What we know:
With 195 residues, the protein is an all-alpha fold. The protein is built from nine helices and no strands.
Amino acid sequence: MARKSEDTKARVLAAATREFASYGIAGARVDRIAATASVNKNLLYIYFGNKEQLFEAVHDAAVTKLLDAAPFDPYDLPGYAGALFDYYRAHPHLLRLARWRSLEQPGAQPLRLAVEATKAKLEALAKAQADGAVDAGLPPHVLLTLVLGLAATWSDGSPEATMPDDDPETVSIHRHAVVVSVGRLTRPPAGRLSA
């Protein structure tokens, strides 16, 4: 029985992810989510409460998966940016969910796990800068913002998993550009390289 319940919740979350990524919170319809997941609409309310709580469950699950899929390494920021680029390509809904959340819930508290992960990233980045392994010309929070922004470049966040240029060679060029750009941005000045 518990296994069936977990399978049902997983189907609902998958259907809700597509719905929210496409239409946002206000435009999403519980009827469509239930139909796509092949469940009774009342079951959604039993499992997740209201539509806003379902959105939060979808958003939280997406952020948690991202944090697990792209571990942060301040000593290999180009590699981290490349892993993020790959994850965004494989899961284009993530950026769109984040955009909908910021547009429709501007006062919403950030996910505690994300806040803790960001704090840990900033501390690790400050240490890497102090060690001379990363350029210290920008404060850690600015540098992290730029790395994250570069990694998200060319990710349109569409639920159909498409990018403006889906040609494999173009995608490879884009990924390479992200990795090289982050490398140039974060490389310490000549003479400050750590041993």
